[in-house]
Structure formats: C-alpha cells, structure tokens
Amino acid sequence: MNIIVAVDKNWGIGKDNKLLVSIPADMKFFREKTTGKVVVMGRKTLESFPNGLPLKRRTNIVLTRDRNYKVKDAIVVHSMEELLEELKKYNSEEVYVIGGDSIYKQMLPYCDTAHLTKIDYAYEADSYFPNLDEMPEWKIEQTSEEQTYFDLEYAFVKYVRQSS
After folding, report:
1. Are 4 and 58 in contact (CB under 8 A)?
2. d(C-alpha 138, C-alpha 160), whole Å
3. Where are the domains of the chain?
4. How far apart are CA 142 and CA 70, in angstroms?
5. What does the alpha-carbon distance between residue 113 and residue 85 come to, in Å, rounded to a whole number?
6. From CA 126, how far away is CA 40, in angstroms rounded?
C-alpha cells in the first residue's frame, strides 16, 4: 500500500483542513499516481475537496465514525477493521492513502511505500505527518532533482519500508 502526501520542513501537512500550499507540479504528481487507483481518506479530507465530492476516475474509500455518513460515488467504512476488509478486494499496490493526519497515522503500519513532496519551507500547520526520517524501517529510495515554484523549493521523495 502507498501513502502520498506533501510535507513541509517540520512534517506539517495542513492547517484548518486545507493544504499548506498548492504546487501545480505536486497536484499533477498526485493525479498521475492516483488516477485509476483506490484512494483512502478520512471524512474531513473528502470535505476539503472541491464541492466535497469524491475524486473522479478513482475508487474513493472514506473512513468515518459517523454511521449515517453517506456520499455519492464513494465507499464509506466506519472502522479500521472494516477498512482493511474492504481493501482486501484491491491490489495493495493500487491503494493510496491520501489523508488526513489521523488516517495517515493509522494506515502507516500497513503501507510499504510513501510518496512525499518535501517542501523546503516551514508553514504554520495544525496537522502533521509522522517523521519518516526518524523511523529506522523507512529508507529513501529515490529523490527527484530539487524543483522550484516561485520561491519555494521542493523535491519528490520516495520512501520504502525495509523488510526486517
């Protein structure tokens, strides 16, 4: 399973249920990686999308404790057990966990690849991604050339969990 996320210098990922910054190349990378695949998210992440609608051309799975929560064109699950059961129907290489922070933390143990856009800037954030650099089981497999968007520098970094 994959995780895909953009993090700042302090591993911040969002503030007030919004991304910290919108970088067109990061959005394009996200689209290329996830189109035609399965995306797993929490309710608040779904609600942060344009019109609160599921992403097109993907299988959207939403985890929420709200048993009455319904959303057109998405599969809604209410527990980690239910989510993991649902995910057995798909090739795990085609599954991308897309947020938010609590979903990332709960799903990280099940993932073996993390696609990060690392932004060389510290934003004011209220949600964070676990710092993979402090976890010995995660190693960087690939780093893109540093890129810039106006005055922001960032790179695409692929982390892979080492099997013990």
Report:
1. no
2. 6
3. 2-161
4. 39
5. 20
6. 21
Residue 163 has pLDDT above 90, yes or no: no
Contacts of 38 (CB under 8 A, 6+ apart): 58, 59, 61, 87, 90, 94, 95, 96
The predicted model gives 114-123 an average pLDDT of 98
Nearest of 72, 51, 52, 74 to residue 63 by alpha carbon:
74
Tokens of 14: 């969002």
Using an 8 Å Cβ cutoff, are 134 and 24 in contact? no
Please name the fold of domain 2-161. Answer: Dihydrofolate Reductase, subunit A (3.40.430)
Residues with Cβ within 8 Å of 91's Cβ and at least 6 positions away in sequence, in order, are none
Residue 31's identity, in one-letter code, is R
Cα angle 33-71-115, degrees, rounded to a multiple of 5: 20
The Cα 61–Cα 107 span in angstroms is 13
pLDDT digits (tens, 9 = 90+) for 148-157: 999 999 999 9
